[in-house]
Amino acid sequence: MRRPFVAGNWKMNLDRASAVALAEGVAKGADSLVGVDLAVCPPSCYLEAVGRAIAGSKIALGAQNMYHQPDGAFTGELSAAMLRDLGCTYVILGHSERRHILGETDEEVNKKVHAALAAGLTPIICVGELLAQRKAGQTMTVIRRQINGSLAGLSPRQMTGIVIAYEPVWAIGTGEVATPQQAEEVHSALRKIVEDRYNDSIAGSVRIQYGGSVKPENAAELLGRPDIDGALVGGASLKVEQFLGIAEKAG
Ligand code: PGA
């Protein structure tokens, strides 16, 4: 069975003191939670401080982005090895804000996925359609293009080290959540794509998180769906009780 996985994407929020306080609160509260994997993904400048705050707890550390090259003249970028050095085990790749605000392509995401795996990080690969694409009936065309592009060239063994997050762009930070049916439809289609690319055993074990306005109030219904294996949480991950409230529903 797939173990649920809930990760908090803190985005470009908080300062050092509030990031550490949030990390400590989440780490403490997670003590009593069973049957769920948890991670927090702070801004990269706070990775080290947050890593210290969650040391010895059930919470893993993740980054929000990285560059695909191992080192060199890439001003402002961080490599996968640097993230490992800071204690990260996960890295979010291809988040819709990076795709749509910063112009990241499937090809770039794919290079990052390969580099992350090579360094021993677990990528959380995000895919999701815009509202206009959903309205135009293009949801699965977009999702298929993004996931196939992001997974290009990965061996079956590498595929077992991947987490996928379905995040409809229209549901991110808007308070508008996909219905459990809408989400499940895409999640089961994503699992089928993985099965067609690899096999049913890999498809059966890959974890697919849902993201987009997940809150304690809607988490149970979403996470109760057969192909939804956890959540990638933005806004609600900035509050200890809300993040833990979601994590409780997943366990
Ligand atoms: P949200 O963000 O929970 O604030 O909608 C989710 C995400 O972008 O990962």
Secondary-structure blueprint of this entry?
Blueprint: E1 5-9, H1 16-30, E2 37-41, H2 47-53, E3 59-63, H3 80-85, E4 90-93, H4 96-100, H5 106-118, E5 122-127, H6 131-135, H7 139-151, H8 156-159, E6 163-166, H9 180-197, H10 200-205, E7 207-211, H11 216-223, E8 230-233, H12 240-250
Parallel strand pairs: 1-2, 1-8, 2-3, 3-4, 4-5, 5-6, 6-7, 7-8
The chain binds 2-phosphoglycolic acid.
Summarize the structure.
The protein is α/β, with parallel strands linked by helices.
Tell me what the structure shows.
The protein has 251 residues and is an alpha/beta fold. The protein has one domain: TIM Barrel, CATH 3.20.20. It is 44% helix and 15% strand. Strands 1-2-3-4-5-6-7-8 form an eight-stranded parallel barrel, surrounded by seven helices. Helix 5 crosses helix 7, helix 7 packs across helix 9 and helix 11 runs parallel beside helix 12. The longest helix is centred in the last third of the chain and has 18 residues. The protein is globular, with a radius of gyration of 17 Å. The two termini are 13 Å apart. The site of 2-phosphoglycolic acid has 13 residues, from strand 8.
